[in-house]
From TrEMBL:
Protein name: 4-alpha-glucanotransferase
InterPro entries from the UniProt entry: GH, Glyco_hydro_77, MalQ_N
Source domain of life: Bacteria
EC id: 2.4.1.25
MalQ N-terminal beta-sandwich domain boundaries: 105-176
Family statement drawn from the similarity comment of this UniProt entry: Belongs to the disproportionating enzyme family.
Region (Disordered): 712-739
Natural source organism: Kitasatospora saccharophila
């Protein structure tokens, strides 16, 4: 099947993005690495794989590649199917066909509001719909074929059927056809929160800094949103993995982001207040001595303060709020807190824990909960504090006039040893890692080390885990960004012990995934931005757009790839996107304009071609965009490109949202993450700095000349005064409305 390679690939270390789209395949060394000991699949195995949504052939741009038998067998085993021999595969296929024919309903049924949904049921079947909201169920009788009512309320209901002496129940997801979209156009900052320090934070940016950044950007500059990196809970232990894209949990945010002084109990504990003086030293080390952000030292100090604050009695009002949070978050919070307490006792890798503790339903876990109840309570309390401060940050953004406010980033997966992988192991594929096939950037494919959802288990669970994840991400946000949004359709599965080239795509029920996404976004009143850079199947972008999911467009990749690769004129850009000049994984604008990004990769031995060739290619690329800026009147002939001119170009496109990389305001040439490196470069640990590498505080960013220049350029996108006051759901386009 043909694909679009539109800008980036994937990187195994931490799920980051790599520039790849416009590399010449021969220069990039594009070739298919042979898969040894992976013979062709027999027809029985091929048919069985197709029946379970496992691709037996793929094309990443170099022609069709057949998937080997060992890969298919291992992937099917992760789906609970023994296909180790042709005979077993044939038996499993026959069993699947028999069970499918016997089943009255699939595990989950999807219906879209305002559209007719057919049920294939025997004549005379009795249908009962039990509404999520409660109340009187809907009773229906099928005469021949049946269509579900078009006016079913949105929700996750239950569909019960009786026919021919058989009975079946299924989850019924009823979703609005479109996700709420932002009203009008707006611009905003893209920031890595840890990198944005103030004179008040404890050595790294925190949630109070986030609130202040949003207040300033909204009230003073007219920005409409603030997109930040994933704030997911990281893996415990030191040294910690600083990447926000390999978290322990995607459901709960990391308490390292807390502003300790903003915890109400702080004022009542003198020893905790004394720790703030030590925190000042951490902050000064970063800001005055050009040090890297030391997350482990920050957390060590904050954890000590939080341990002290946890001993302070809460008033009745705060206690009631805490208990309400615990009830709302339910079993997932309980498992998250239990995992953290067990990790303190046995280490972070739960696969090596005592056997009885490796599954949350085991009796030994119940016994451990009684022993660790104080630590479990502590971790529940931490999750609540972070939730409170996230709420305050979003409120600060909307109170400052932002029509969207915060845009939270949802990583594509979780660490295999983390809290979510332990709590959700029944719906995650054991012995499998997600990744990417061989492509124009990496002939050897990529393994990200993240366990994927099992599509069959998700369906049997009525997609409840996925729904809870989306609801949590959207709770304190005006929009969410979904990393590698193509994962709603398919993911590249790599069996444990296999090379990334020995993987295959596994299909998800995209209709169900999109319906759940639309339903939860509708409930929260949030927009959705899909990171759709990379290898994208034909039709995927169109289908996402049909449901109101905005895409991501990076200026340097916007070319007419179907023709001669020429720069794409602004009027030909898609309107339904967040348009940017860069991302956290790509060179900053300052580096693009000077060629410093090539020099950096050369120093680290990361270039695929000789330095001179890479420099020539970078210069030619920049010249293409300079000519385009001159053509549309944003530069004079012979004038060098500037950040302001490039952002003016984004303004000239119809893009719904325009994102400004916050370090661009002070000319920071360094990328926050350099794909292809691990310890050779300080990924995810750099404070925002100016062109000389001197860290700049949030207060300094507010007065930087570059900030004023970019904000003035994008002022036409400032929030119109006649927009309704910021709220949550009612400030957005209603589902299904034309935009």
């Amino acid at each position: 099947m043909p694909v679009y390679i539109v800008g980036v690939g994937e990187q195994p270390e931490d799920g980051v993005r790599l520039v790849a789209a416009y590399l010449d395949r021969e220069q990039a060394g594009f070739e298919q690495v042979p898969a040894e000991d992976n013979p062709p699949a027999p027809p029985e195995l091929t048919a069985l794989a197709h029946a379970h949504g496992v691709d037996t052939c793929y094309d990443a741009g170099a022609g069709p590649v057949q998937v080997g038998a060992r890969t298919l067998t291992a992937v099917l085993a992760a789906l609970g199917i023994d296909a180790g021999t042709p005979e077993l595969a044939a038996e499993a296929l026959e069993r699947h066909r028999t069970e499918s024919a016997r089943r009255l309903l699939p595990p989950t049924v999807v219906a879209w509001q305002g559209r007719r949904t057919a049920l294939d049921l025997p004549a005379g079947a009795e249908v009962r719909i039990e509404l999520e909201q409660g109340g009187e169920p809907w009773e229906l009788t099928v005469e021949h074929a049946h269509w579900l009512p078009e006016d079913l309320p949105p929700g996750r209901h239950v569909l019960a059927v009786r026919a021919d002496g058989r009975a079946a129940r299924a989850a019924l997801v009823v979703a609005p056809p479109r996700i709420p979209e932002p009203r009008g156009r707006s611009w905003g900052f893209l920031a890595q929160l840890y990198s944005v320090l103030s004179e008040r934070s404890w050595g790294m940016g925190d949630l109070a800094d986030l609130a202040e950044l949003a207040q300033w950007a909204g009230a003073e500059l007219g920005a409409g949103f603030l997109q930040i990196n994933p704030l997911h809970a990281g893996m415990p232990g030191a040294p910690s993995d600083p990447s926000p894209y390999r978290p322990s949990s995607r459901r709960f945010a990391d308490p390292v982001h807390l502003r300790i002084e903003a915890v109400p109990e702080y004022a009542r504990h003198e020893e905790a207040r004394e720790l703030a003086h030590r925190a000042r030293l951490l902050r000064e080390e970063v800001l005055e001595h050009d040090a890297l952000i030391d997350r482990d030292s920050v957390w060590s100090l904050k954890r000590r303060a939080l341990e002290l604050l946890h001993t302070v009695p809460r008033g009745v009002g705060r206690e009631a709020a805490y208990r309400a949070f615990v009830r709302r978050e339910g079993e997932w919070l309980e498992r998250y807190a239990v995992w953290n307490a067990l990790a303190e006792a046995h280490g972070g890798g739960w696969h090596s824990w005592p056997k009885g503790l490796r599954h949350p339903a085991n009796p030994q876990v119940a016994a451990a909960k009684a022993e660790l109840k104080d630590r479990i309570e502590f971790h529940r309390w931490l999750a609540w504090l972070v939730d409170e401060q996230l709420h305050a940050a979003q409120r600060a953004a909307t109170d400052a006039g932002m029509p969207i406010g915060l845009i939270h980033d949802l990583a594509v997966g979780v660490h295999p040893d983390g809290a979510d992988a332990w709590a959700l192991q029944d719906v995650l594929a054991a012995g499998i890692s997600t990744g990417a096939p061989p492509d124009a950037f990496n002939a050897h494919g990529q393994d990200w080390g993240l366990p994927p959802w099992r599509p069959d288990a998700l369906a049997e669970a009525g997609y409840a885990p996925f729904a809870a994840l989306i609801a949590s991400a959207a709770r304190h946000a005006g929009a969410i960004r979904i990393d590698h949004v193509m994962g709603l359709f398919r993911l590249w599965w790599v069996p444990e012990g296999a090379l990334p080239t020995q993987g295959t795509y596994v299909r998800y029920d995209a209709e169900a995934m999109l319906a759940v996404l639309a339903l939860e976004a509708h409930r929260a009143g949030t927009a959705v931005i899909g990171e759709d850079l990379g290898t994208v199947e034909p039709g995927v972008r169109e289908r996402l757009a049909d449901h109101g999911v905005l895409g991501t467009s990076v200026l340097w990749f916007e070319r007419d790839w179907q023709a001669d690769g020429a720069v794409l004129p602004p009027e030909h850009w898609r309107p339904g996107c967040l348009a940017t000049l860069t991302t956290h994984d790509l060179p900053s604008t300052a580096a693009r304009l000077t060629g410093e990004h090539v020099e950096l990769r050369h120093r680290l031995g990361l270039l695929a071609r000789p330095l001179a060739e890479e420099q020539d290619a970078a210069a030619a690329e920049l010249a293409d965009w300079q000519r385009e800026l001159v053509r549309i009147g944003l530069l004079a002939e012979g004038e060098p490109a500037t950040p302001e001119a490039l952002y003016a170009y984004l303004l000239a496109t119809p893009a719904k949202l325009v994102g400004v990389w916050l370090p661009d305001t002070v000319g920071d040439p360094r990328p926050q993450n350099l794909p292809g490196t691990w310890d050779q470069y300080p990924n995810w640990r750099l404070p925002v700095a100016d062109a000389t590498g001197t860290p700049r505080t949030l207060d300094a960013l507010a007065t930087a000349p570059g900030t004023a220049g970019i904000a003035a350029t994008l002022a036409p996108l400032n929030t119109p005064p006649d927009l309704p006051p910021p709220g949550h759901a009612d400030r957005r386009t209603p589902p299904g409305a034309a935009v």
